[in-house]
Write a structure and sequence with these properties.
Number of helices: 1
Shape: elongated
Strand content: over 45%
CATH superfamily of the largest domain: monomeric porin ompg
Oligomer: single chain
Order of helices and strands: HEEEEEEEEEEEE
CATH class of the largest domain: Mainly Beta
């Protein structure tokens, strides 16, 4: 009987000891969680005090293609972007140049002629109201010798919205109201005519990190006259690039530019496939 009683006392002591240990463990966990929350809040406050990176970030892409033999052609492209941020302000400059020539036979004589000559520049100022919403002012100019236009230009305010952001994907949406001015080339019926009109522009920018060193970018924009629905311009650029060092990347890009109103001897759609070397600094 005494052995049974002693056994019961020992078992009760063990159970009581286990309850005490569990209670202490839960208290330690609660204390650790509170310390973690305090540390996270302190880290967030310190990060907010960190000076913003105000340096200029640039990306330049060089593309070149040359063929010999049955056809002799040479194509060159240069695309550059530079961005600077200070406080809630930002400034982004974009430059796109394409130039090409080819040998053609005229009256049994081989003549080297320019078959592509395009210059485009855009400057965008941004003021960030929040992390996802930015007011913008954009100025753009395009000169394309083979597009029916001596030049196209536009300026106006807009808004940029960061629709989605994660470790692998980014999606930005933009909308602008613009004052546009185009000049038609002399050889077309409305020679030298300068058209001034109100227009709007919608733009989508998407980035996907497929793996650490491989990413896909898509840019799509649509600009149209508010008065004449048939006067519109579409731009699409799909790009796949892979990092080969800290600053160098290599890739391929397919660009489509569609102009709805053109001269009789001009194609509405202009396609460009480019292999490029990219430099980030």
């Amino acid at each position: 009987m005494k052995k049974i009683t002693l056994s019961m006392i020992a078992l009760s002591s063990l159970l009581f000891s286990a309850d005490v240990d569990t209670t202490q463990l839960e208290a330690d966990i609660a204390t650790a969680e509170a310390a973690k929350k305090e540390a996270e809040a302190k880290l967030k406050a310190l990060i907010a005090q960190r000076p913003q990176d105000q340096s200029i970030h640039s990306n330049v892409k060089f593309g070149y293609m040359k063929t010999d033999g049955n056809s002799n052609t040479e194509t060159f492209s240069l695309n550059g972007k530079a961005t600077k941020n200070w406080g809630v302000n930002s400034l982004k400059a974009t430059l796109d140049i394409q130039y090409g020539n080819a040998d053609t036979v005229v009256n049994n004589v081989t003549v080297n002629e320019v078959n592509k000559e395009k210059y485009f520049g855009e400057l965008e100022y941004g003021y960030a109201f929040t992390k996802v919403l930015t007011a913008t002012v954009v100025v753009g100019y395009k000169n394309d010798k083979f597009s029916s236009y001596d030049y196209q230009s536009y300026v106006g305010p807009g808004v940029k919205y960061k629709a989605y952001k994660s470790d692998k994907q980014d999606l930005d949406l933009e909308a602008s109201l613009l004052y546009s001015k185009d000049k038609i080339m002399d050889q077309y019926p409305a020679s030298g005519l300068e058209e001034e009109y109100g227009s709007y522009k919608a733009k989508l920018l998407y980035e996907l990190k497929i793996i650490d060193d491989l990413k896909f970018n898509q840019e799509l924009s649509y600009r149209a006259s508010m008065d004449e629905s048939t006067n519109y311009f579409v731009f699409s650029k799909s790009e796949l690039s892979s990092k080969i060092s800290d600053i160098f990347s290599a890739g391929i890009a397919y660009q489509i530019e569609y102009t709805n109103i053109v001269g009789d001897d001009v194609e509405q759609r202009d396609n460009t496939l480019t292999a490029f070397l990219s430099v980030d600094y």
